[in-house]
Amino acid sequence: MKLKLALAALTLSLQFSTAQAHSVWLEPSSTVLSKAAYITVAGAAGNDKFHYNHAALRGLNENFTAIAPDGSTVAPENLMAGKLRTVFDLNLTQSGTYRLAVASEGIMASWKEGEQTKRFRGNAEAFAKDVPANATDLRVNEGVNRLETFVTVGKPTDIKPIGKGLELVPITHPNDLFAGETATFRFVVDGKPAAGLEVLIMRGGSRYRNQLEEIKLTTDAEGKFSIKWPEAGMYWLDADAQDDKTTVPQARERRLSYVATFEVLPQ
Length: 267
Fold this sequence. Notes:
- This protein has two helices and 20 strands.
- It is mainly beta.
- The protein has one domain (about 5-260).
- Strands 4, 7, 10, 11, 12, 16, 17, 19 and 20 form a nine-stranded mixed beta sheet that branches. Strands 3, 5, 6, 8 and 9 form a five-stranded antiparallel beta sheet that branches. Strands 13, 14, 15 and 18 form a four-stranded antiparallel beta sheet that branches.
- The longest helix is centred in the middle third of the chain and has 7 residues, at about 125-130.
- The two termini are about 35 Å apart.
- Pfam families: DUF4198 (PF10670).
């Protein structure tokens, strides 16, 4: 079963869980603008992509970053966390492509103290301080997670790789997608090609059709995959991986997750 981003206590800790498999997403009001303008972004979790009927995405104050074309950051305005969605505005004043991302990394641990089960969530520094070195039945997992979308004002500009965790490196620009055309992307882990990675893509609006219409793809030896967009709409993309490149020796594995939203326009 593919690992999913979980909403622990409906906060954006972005920890993993196979038991809680609601999808998460960011949905911008526009992904392509002809001139500088405001957009509104909504974040939520649910089973029907881009249908707001389960829970809001919380904790954006700590985890959200909007990177402008010149590398500076844009602060969210009018942030409001409701029951079913979190919304905020962004003032996009520069020409070029903006990267809107919710990213986190951390460690989860559990151990026994007598009859009690103790739990920890935090970074490596806090782990070394708060978790006993001789803890009984210690179980440790590490996660690196990224949830993002892209918005372009005027002419698209290059998107620089982050270089850490699982990330998508565009070959086709993510704001230059059209129904009936083929787009190509590359997945990398810590900057190196992610070969054999399973990629799941779904168009929004599944509650209004009888089939989910999932598109399942696999990356090649260079981490590349291509998709011919069947029709216009908002699409949700998910990929997950795991390895042993942990930052603490007690961790059994590092779990990596990537989720993105793309808008495909009509011809």
